[in-house]
Amino acid sequence: MKSLLKNELIKNNINLEESKINALEIFANKLLWWNGVHNISGAKTKEQVVQNIVDSIYPITFLKEPNSMLDVGTGAGFPGLILAIIWDKTKTVLSEPINKKAAFLRYIISELNLKNVTVFKDRVQNLKSSYFELITSRAVTDTNLLLKLTKNLSNKDTKFLFFKGSNVYNELKELNSYKYKIVKKELRNYLLLEQKDG
Hints:
This protein has 7 helices and 7 strands. It is α/β, with parallel strands linked by helices. The protein has a domain of 136 residues: Vaccinia Virus protein VP39 (Rossmann fold, 3-Layer(aba) Sandwich), CATH 3.40.50. It has a 7-stranded mixed sheet with strand order 3-2-1-4-5-7-6. A hairpin with a 2-residue loop joins strand 6 and strand 7. Helix 1 packs across helix 3 and helix 2 crosses helix 3.
């Protein structure tokens, strides 16, 4: 698992400390085991788990570490938990309403002793919190709805990072009050949004 992970990181020009790679390896092995019992992710093989990890990490190549982060609908940990392992000074909330997925996230947080991460086991619109510097989400719902759901958790300085496929361009038409940038990597479109000034 570790050599597979290291090879993919090298291929994507991602340099990580050995301790972070070790943590990601533990995550990957535990996810494969839990998946066999509880079916919490579509990633069923080592290769698929590693692909998901690299997909989640890639934004560190173009984003600086935020002070706080909210991940909407984290599922098995992509991207929020993976980013929180790398950005270990970022105060992170993982919003995941499904019991077995939230249980897995809490287990990994405990296993890796991640002091910067908490799980909110409910729908994100029920979260009461101060504003987040970065709000992320992968394959949860369309961009406009995500912005509405997190309206009370963002302010004018919040950046949004949404992991999108090819449909991203259809969703941009309604985003008049946001400026955006798309970072392309193979079939993935990383959509970065922030509010326009004024």
